[in-house]
Design goal:
With about 350 residues, the protein is an alpha/beta fold. It has 2 domains: about 70 residues; about 180 residues, Alpha-Beta Complex (2-enoyl-CoA Hydratase, Chain A, domain 1), CATH 3.90.226.10. The protein is built from 12 helices and 8 strands. Strands 1, 2, 3, 4, 5, 6, 7 and 8 form an 8-stranded mixed sheet that branches.
């Protein structure tokens, strides 16, 4: 820097030496007019090269910074999910070791909603809670709080059999069912296994029967000009297909299947209720009754609530809820993609199956 240059003025001197290679212009640049030898453009070409290098390095750094930003965001989301999972597990652990089992108490298990696989009322969720209630020494009795229209005969039968088994293993521990708004069909199948059933006079009880729902679209397809093309291997593989005309032989076969399941239902109710049932075949016809009429027919033993059963029949003041609950993380993150798609379209691909519903 010379003496004539102000102190705050920065000049970049062109590099000297044999190793310096001037910037080679691109093909497009070659088409431009070359500056005359010794001109200012020629003497400042090195500055142009330096600026280009600085710009290139700046772009590289920006891209690198964006990559790191994306990486750190990904790590942050992963840490958030991990934290939520940890909190969920802690809450679940606190539920499993909930206070109340340290003193005499009653265990309450809700049977609510449709009884079906992949529901809170499915057998693989209810049975472990029943086993826990029977195994705990400080649990002096169990109450099933029934509020269900029924559902799968398979799930209902599995829970019924589990209660019967546990009653034999722990004969001194009573188990009751309290019917609230509704204890019908598959719900009553489960309730029939307990020692005593109580209800409200206005409760809906019974509906001892089996049904299978389907639809027929043959006429609608004909009017719309839709042709049904169905290929099967096995003459009965398309049994109860809603897009084909009803076949009397298929209907007879399906009615036989439903009747077989119905007989199993009736036998379970008779085994559970015994002589308390009155001699009335209408009980097993699928009719449902109010709690008042159900008591007259021997379907329930009396009128009571969960609170009074715990206090007056089990003889304790405290209760603990052992109902299986949905995972909090699942609630937070929402439904799966398949459930979301089904919710959007309203379509169900499940085949018609026997159900115990009113």
């Amino acid at each position: 820097m010379s003496q004539q240059t102000p102190p705050d003025d920065v000049r970049i001197e062109p590099p000297d030496g044999p190793d310096y290679t001037p910037h080679e212009p691109a093909d497009n640049d070659r088409r431009r007019r070359r500056p005359a030898a010794g001109s200012v453009d020629e003497t400042t070409g090195w500055a142009h090269d330096a600026l280009l290098d600085m710009a290139r390095h700046g772009l590289v750094e920006q891209r690198r910074a964006r990559r790191w930003k994306v990486f750190f965001r990904f790590v942050s989301v992963a840490l958030l999910i991990w934290s939520l999972t940890l909190v969920t597990l802690i809450f679940q652990a606190s539920e499993r070791t909930a206070p109340g089992l340290s003193k005499p108490t009653a265990a309450v298990i809700d049977i609510t909603g449709i009884i079906a696989a992949d529901q809170p009322t499915e057998a693989r969720k209810i049975i472990p809670r029943l086993e826990k209630a029977f195994e705990e020494d400080n649990v002096k009795g169990i109450v099933l709080r029934m509020n269900t229209p029924g559902g799968s005969p398979v799930q209902s039968s599995a829970i019924f059999n589990a209660i019967q088994r546990l009653k034999k293993e722990y004969p001194d521990k009573p188990i009751y069912a309290v019917c609230e708004d509704m204890c019908a069909s598959g719900g009553y199948y489960i309730a029939a296994a307990v020692d005593e059933i109580y209800a409200n006079p206005s409760s809906i009880v019974g509906s001892i029967g089996v049904r299978m729902d389907s639809f027929g679209f043959v006429d609608a397809m004909r009017k719309l000009g839709i042709e049904r093309r169905l290929l099967t291997a096995g003459e009965n593989k398309a049994l109860a297909d809603p897009f084909s005309p009803a076949d009397p032989d298929d209907t007879d076969y399906l009615e036989g299947v439903l009747e077989e399941i119905h007989v199993q239902f009736i036998e379970a109710v008779k085994a559970g209720r015994g002589d308390r049932l009155v001699e009335d075949e209408a009980i097993f016809s699928g009719l449902f009754y109010t709690g008042q009429t159900a008591r007259e027919k021997g379907l329930v033993d009396g009128f009571d609530s969960v609170r009074t059963v715990i206090r007056d029949r089990i003889g304790v003041e405290h209760s603990i809820d052992l109902t299986p609950r949905s995972n909090r993380l699942e609630k937070l993150l929402g439904v799966t993609a398949a459930e979301f798609g089904g919710a959007l379209t309203g379509l169900s691909h499940e085949p018609a199956v026997p159900m115990m519903l009113p």
